[in-house]
């Protein structure tokens, strides 16, 4: 399996994508029983799905998109999918990549340290700037290797202390294969996805030149 590729960029930054739907799926069965009783069963691992719609593209840009479509799943390849409308913590999103100085010194570029795992839904992260702010709905990526990544939404507001340490409530659960040897990422936090077969719409006309596709997360271990 080759390393994942990146979403194409066309020079417009976050305006490259005019629509982005980025949602988790929690596999479960729900049955309504007699006597107004409902039973539910959760199974498997939650995973992410996405839908992207680009801005109108010029002809050279359309070529990049067509090439991306053929490289993002046809032969088992993956791409790095992220929420194009929330590519970094919203409190620090000025349209440019994260930068700053860590509380303990050194340049900060969005990568941090997984200091400890309290439980599968609570992690402690260090290596942040002092007072670094996380908001509900922000994303955090836990990365074991270039292909083994776990993407989570932050459930509660949190702010790093003066030493650059913060405790985060996340959902869904962090799998046991991820340990404190993993790294933490807040700049374009991503998971590995493949384009859903048959979902790519690359219609070319003078009236419409905005390709779209859907994609689903795939796991590696």
From the structure above, extract its key features.
221 residues; mainly beta; 6-stranded mixed β-sheet; 6-stranded antiparallel beta barrel; 1 helix; 18 strands; 6% helix; 39% strand; globular
What does this molecule look like?
The structure is a single chain. With 221 residues, the protein is mainly β. It is 6% helix and 39% strand. The chain has one helix and 18 strands. The longest helix is centred in the first third of the chain and has 13 residues, at 59-71. The protein is globular.
Q: How does the SSE layout of this entry go?
A:
Elements: E1 5-6, E2 17-25, E3 28-33, E4 37-42, E5 47-54, H1 59-71, E6 79-81, E7 100-101, E8 107-108, E9 111-119, E10 122-126, E11 133-134, E12 139-143, E13 149-154, E14 158-159, E15 166-171, E16 183-185, E17 191-195, E18 212-217
Parallel strand pairs: 1-6
Antiparallel strand pairs: 2-5, 3-4, 5-18, 6-17, 7-8, 9-10, 9-16, 10-15, 11-14, 12-13, 12-16, 13-15, 17-18
């Amino acid at each position: 399996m080759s390393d994942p590729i990146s979403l194409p960029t066309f020079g417009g930054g976050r305006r490259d994508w005019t629509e982005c739907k980025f949602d988790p799926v929690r596999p479960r069965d729900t049955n309504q029983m007699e006597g107004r009783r409902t039973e539910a069963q959760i199974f498997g691992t939650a995973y992410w799905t996405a839908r992207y719609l680009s801005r109108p593209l010029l002809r050279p840009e359309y070529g990049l998109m067509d090439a991306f479509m053929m490289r993002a799943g046809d032969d088992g390849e993956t791409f790095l999918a992220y929420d194009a409308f929330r590519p970094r913590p919203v409190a620090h999103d000025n349209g440019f990549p994260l930068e700053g100085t860590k509380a303990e010194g050194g340049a900060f570029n969005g990568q941090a340290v997984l200091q400890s795992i309290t439980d599968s839904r609570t992690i402690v992260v260090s290596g942040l700037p002092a007072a670094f702010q996380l908001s509900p709905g922000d994303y955090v990526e836990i990365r074991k290797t270039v292909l083994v990544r776990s993407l989570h939404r932050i459930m509660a507001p949190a702010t790093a202390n003066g030493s650059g340490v913060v405790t985060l409530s996340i959902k869904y659960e962090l799998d046991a294969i991820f340990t404190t040897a993993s790294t933490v990422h807040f700049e374009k936090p991503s998971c590995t996805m493949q384009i859903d077969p048959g979902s790519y719409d690359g219609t070319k006309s003078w009236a419409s030149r905005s390709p779209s596709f859907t994609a689903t997360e795939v796991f590696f271990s």
